[in-house]
C-alpha cells in the first residue's frame, strides 16, 4: 500500500530504512547524448548497499530538467520518474543468478551470490534507459518480516 512500484520504495519497505544514492561513477559520451552511471542504493544509517545499479541513459530522449536533477543531485531514477510524472514501460531483457566476479563488476565482494536483471525503460515509445541491477541475496534473506 505504500509503494508506487519503484525499486527504491520496495527496498525501503523491506529494509525499513531510508535509502540514499551513492554515485560510483557518471560519465557521458563525446556527443553528450548518453550517460553511463553506476550507483548503490545504500541504507542511510546502516551503510548497507542494498542494490548496485548500472545505467545507460539516453539523454536526448529526456527533458533537460530531468537530466539536470539526475546529474546534479543524488536522486533515485524512480523518484525522478515520479517527480516528472513520466509514463514508463519496462521490458526485462535478462535475469539471472550469478556470483560477483569482483567489486568492480557488481559492487560486492568476489563470490557474493547475486540476483541480477537488465531491463529497457521506454517513454513515448523511445528507449530512455537500459538498467542492470544487482541484489545481494544473503542480505535480503537475513531480513526479519513482521507478520500482521
Key words describing this protein structure:
Chorismate lyase, 23% helix, 6-stranded antiparallel sheet, single chain, alpha+beta, 148 residues, 43% strand
Outline the structure in words:
With 148 residues, the protein is an alpha+beta fold. The chain has one domain (7-141): Chorismate lyase (3-Layer(aba) Sandwich). The chain has helices at 7-15, 64-72, 77-83, 103-106, 137-141; strands at residues 19-28, 34-43, 49-58, 89-99, 113-123, 126-136. The protein has a six-stranded antiparallel beta sheet with strand order 1-2-3-6-5-4. Strand 1 (19-28) and strand 2 (34-43) form a beta hairpin. It starts with 6 loop residues before the first helix and ends in a 7-residue tail after the last helix. The mean pLDDT is 90.
Summarize, please.
The chain has 148 residues and is of the alpha+beta class.
Question: What is the distance, rounded to the nearest whole angstrom, between the alpha carbons of the first and last residues?
Answer: 14 Å
- Count of alpha/pi helices: 5
Backbone shape? globular
Estimate the mean pLDDT confidence: 90
> What is the topology, as strand order, of the major beta sheet?
1-2-3-6-5-4
CATH superfamily: Chorismate lyase-like
Q: Taking Cα atoms only, what radius of gyration do you get, to the nearest Å?
A: 15 Å
CATH topology, which one? Chorismate lyase
Beta-strand share of residues: 35-45%
Low-confidence stretches: none
Number of spatially distinct domains: 1
> Total strand count, please?
6
Query: What is the CATH class designation?
Result: Alpha Beta
Helix-strand topology string = HEEEHHEHEEH
Amino acid at each position: 500500500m505504500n509503494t508506487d512500484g519503484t525499486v527504491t520504495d520496495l527496498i525501503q519497505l523491506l529494509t525499513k530504512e531510508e535509502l540514499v544514492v551513492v554515485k560510483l561513477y557518471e560519465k557521458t559520451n563525446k556527443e553528450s547524448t548518453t550517460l553511463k552511471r553506476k550507483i548503490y542504493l545504500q541504507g542511510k544509517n546502516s551503510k548497507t548497499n542494498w542494490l548496485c545499479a548500472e545505467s545507460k541513459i539516453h539523454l536526448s530522449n529526456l527533458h533537460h530538467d530531468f537530466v539536470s536533477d539526475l546529474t546534479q543531485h543524488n536522486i533515485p531514477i524512480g523518484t525522478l520518474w515520479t517527480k516528472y510524472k513520466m509514463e514508463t514501460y519496462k521490458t526485462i531483457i535478462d535475469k539471472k543468478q550469478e556470483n560477483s566476479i569482483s567489486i568492480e563488476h557488481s559492487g560486492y565482494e568476489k563470490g557474493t551470490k547475486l540476483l541480477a536483471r537488465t531491463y529497457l525503460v521506454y517513454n513515448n515509445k523511445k528507449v530512455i534507459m537500459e538498467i542492470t541491477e544487482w541484489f545481494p541475496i544473503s542480505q535480503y534473506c537475513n531480513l526479519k518480516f513482521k507478520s500482521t
